[in-house]
Amino acid sequence: MKKLAIAAAVFCLAWAHFVVAVLGAEISRGDVSGKPEVYAKVVQEPNPVLLGHWGCTHTTKVFKTGEIFTEPIEYWLLKVEDRYALYFYRYKHGKEKKYRGWREWTVKTDEISSPPEISIFAKDGAVYYQWKDDKPTQMTRIEEPR
Q1: pLDDT at 20
Q2: Whole-prediction pTM value?
Q3: Is 41 helix (H, G, I), strand (E, B) or coil?
Q4: Following DSSP, what letter does each residue of the chain receive, concatenated?
């Protein structure tokens, strides 16, 4: 029974990554073409692994109600001339709200952040998304940097 539960969990995670990476990309090349509306605040140049288009399906729990939600998350970090710009997408389940567009987040080597609640970071060659105190979710590269 334990092996079946582990296999089911692995399948669900693999399927979530597949859906985001192949079928459900919310950010298109058209969204990030042209001149960004705002640019990231760069404290230190980003780790090159953070560049490009990344996505995941993040699982979060509403502590007041105990409800568990999965939320698609994507970002595209690109270098425009000598500056960096970040396009972000998040669908917040429960409130049926979409966050979409250029964001003025802070970039510091291995981390992109929107304090105090969101962190995207590189660790051991992988990229992770973290909301508040949730467990980090590993992201999947959707497109290489351009």
Answers
A1: 45
A2: 0.80
A3: strand
A4: -HHHHHHHHHHHHHHHHHIIIII-----TTTTSS--SS--EEEEPPPGGG-EEEEEEEEEE-TTT--EEEEEEEEEEEEETTEEEEEEEEEETTTTEEEEEEE--EEETTEEEETTTEEEEEETTEEEEEETTSPPEE-EEEE---
The encoded tokens of residue 3 equal 């092996």
- The three-class DSSP label of residue 64 is coil
pLDDT of residue 119 exceeding 90, the answer is yes
pLDDT tens digits, 47-77: 999 999 999 999 988 878 888 889 999 999 9
